[in-house]
Design a protein that fits this description.
The chain is an alpha/beta fold. It has helices spanning about 10-20, 50-60, 75-85, 90-95, 100-105, 115, 135-150, 175-185, 220-225, 245-255, and strands at about 1-5, 25-30, 40, 60-65, 110, 125-130, 160, 165-170, 200, 215, 230-235, 240, 260.
């Protein structure tokens, strides 16, 4: 059973499962495009038991979460109460406790998207663009560490640094909104006119299971980063998904953006 949100990750996971010969059903937590030959059933995060029943009826052996899902405070409160007994509005890391509850109630193993589509994880290496200078690499490592710190607060998975200074962090608006803010800051002269480059970094939340909501980048990320004046994208190696990799690399090369994977620590 693939619990599907928005974005191309859903397609990556479906195609990988099909290549492996798996029998699949897609439970749509967000509206889905036409998926010929694939069983797509509705799923309502406000009614988690209905999702459990759909998984049980299919006799699923494995469950994968893929794609973005928008949850307001009321939906988060309901999921938190379902998972923990407490109705307090929960962050993404707390909601990851749902995995254990779902496994107990369905008997199915929870797989990360990267365990189904194994070619998605970022390597610990240059991915696109030119090699970084020593100072640029130092700034990129600062950015990855800052992204981990933001994740530890359960705020987001991404930051932007100018040289060695953190200038913006992801919040509930996501990466697109972060890059929009960075573009505005740059246009208004607050950032981007120094020697140090603008660097976007994405890293997994330290306290979050890897089966839930790994950070991801793709061609759209590269395009929006370029519009914001970012020249380097650093991602946590082994814990970041690269979507539409060939198109992403082509977009980065065309726009003069360097992408690299870095191990944290």
């Amino acid at each position: 059973s693939i619990l599907a949100g928005t974005g191309s990750l859903v397609t990556h996971v479906i195609e990988a499962a099909q290549r492996a010969g798996d029998e699949i059903q897609v439970i749509a937590l967000m509206p889905q495009p036409d998926r010929p030959g694939v069983t797509v059933l509705p799923g309502d995060t406000r009614d988690p038991m209905s999702i459990i029943r759909t998984i049980r009826a299919f006799r699923s052996t494995h469950i994968t979460l893929a794609g973005g899902v928008t949850l307001g405070d009321r939906a988060r409160e309901g999921l938190s109460e379902f998972a923990t007994g407490s109705p307090a509005a929960a962050g993404d890391a707390v909601l990851s406790k749902m995995s254990a509850v779902v496994r107990t109630m369905t008997g199915a193993r929870i797989l990360g998207a990267h365990e189904v589509a194994r070619d998605l994880l970022a390597p610990n290496d240059r991915i696109a663009g030119a090699d970084l200078t020593g100072q640029q690499l130092k700034s990129a490592r600062i950015a990855i560490a800052a992204a981990r710190d933001i994740g530890r607060l359960d705020l987001g998975q991404a930051v932007v640094v100018a040289g060695a200074r953190v200038v913006a962090a992801e919040d509930v608006g996501g990466t697109d909104e972060l890059l929009h803010r960075v573009a505005r800051h740059r246009q208004e002269g607050r950032i981007g006119d120094g020697v140090g480059p603008l660097i976007l970094a994405k890293a997994a939340k330290p306290q979050q299971p890897l089966s839930v909501d790994l950070p991801a980048i793709g061609p759209d990320t590269v395009a929006k980063a370029a519009e914001a004046g970012i020249s380097i994208i650093a991602v946590e190696a082994g814990k970041t998904l690269l979507l539409e990799r060939a198109a992403m690399i082509e977009a980065a090369e065309k726009r003069g953006i360097a992408i690299l994977g870095l191990k944290y620590g």
